[in-house]
Design brief:
With 111 residues, this protein is mainly α. It contains five helices and two strands, in the order H-H-H-H-E-E-H. It has a two-stranded antiparallel sheet with strand order 1-2.
């Protein structure tokens, strides 16, 4: 319910990559290639350049990230305060879901 209330689900097929980008930028400002590397190292997921730049445009349009002045042909981005709130809400919801699922597995006798 909170997931839909935040408006994050509106990103459609960019939902998961969007979350990964927000997590990456929570660690500090980065340009596109650095984000792709960070996401792969941190989350074990690969995002291609086409998907990444579409997600960046959507997140920037929502005000959850902002572009910084380009440096040597690289355009860095950073998480905004609104983006940090959305990310915290999403991660908290995921934590609640994981806890509920683990409780149910234990009740069902599944290790």
């Amino acid at each position: 319910d909170g997931f839909i209330q935040s408006g994050f689900a509106v990103l459609g097929r960019f939902e998961e990559p969007g979350l990964l980008v927000l997590v990456s930028l929570a660690g500090g400002e980065k340009h596109g290639y650095a984000m792709m590397q960070d996401i792969e190292e941190t989350c074990g997921a690969r995002i291609g350049p086409g998907t990444l730049y579409a997600v960046l445009a959507r997140l920037e349009g929502r005000g959850w990230i902002e572009a910084l002045p380009a440096s040597e042909r690289r355009k860095p981005y950073r998480l905004t305060a609104a983006g940090a709130l959305v990310l915290a809400e999403q991660l908290s919801g995921m934590q609640d879901l994981a806890a509920a699922g683990l409780r149910r597995l234990r009740l069902a006798g599944t290790p």
